[in-house]
Predict the structure.
Amino acid sequence: TQPGAIAAFRRLALTCRHFHCPSERLDDLTEATMVGDRQIIAVAGVGHLGRYICEELLAAPDFDVIVLSRQSTTTSWASKKGIPIHPTDYTPSSLLSILNQTNATTLISFINLTSPLYIQIHSALLSACRQSTHCKRLIPSEWIGDIESHPLKPSFYGTTREPFRQALRAQNTVTWTLFNNGWLADYFLTAPKTHMPPIPEEFPVDANGWRACVRGTGDEEQSWTCGRDVGRAVVELCRADEWVSLVWMTRERGWHGED
């Protein structure tokens, strides 16, 4: 066990235990809110991080949320939150019907696949947005670290994310952005306190097993951001009048080897 990693765990667990990490407004985004009715934000493949985004959008006065899913069940997390679930097979026609029926303005994906199926599904999302009446904004499923310096890491990004990024750049009908948030501070928390499941084989600290395995020297700088803060940042992004192609977010910075 690395003492520095455990110290970092204690510090971040204290900060995040109530999911109330202080949030900074994104400096590069306008604070203007679109005037009119509440915008409908469509979320595809909510997963775990997507729950924070849905909860923060629901808490905002200017948004409503719908969930796109292959499964429709009254016992799902979204149903318990009162979020409408729209079953889809993720074909362009199915998606287009939902987007036009709901008048969604933004589509956010959390469909995290390591196979070429990622390209197929996201191409369908893009096609539906391009043909839709109102949904002209898309956030594809990236939600990782420095894709500007390391666009092909992890390795499966080279065969999944990068081809779709090229498809995004090749069109000008739909506005899009790639969201970079780095490690989530939630991985320092025990299971009952976060929506994120533990990943002890990937993240250096296993909060549930009270173990740590720091790769490298421990002196490599890291950044951690609470999942709740990511949700709040996405709310601000949805409010922004203009988007850039890359959005970066970081909260806590440090080293696993520090005491």
About this structure: The chain has a mean pLDDT of 83. The radius of gyration is 18 Å.
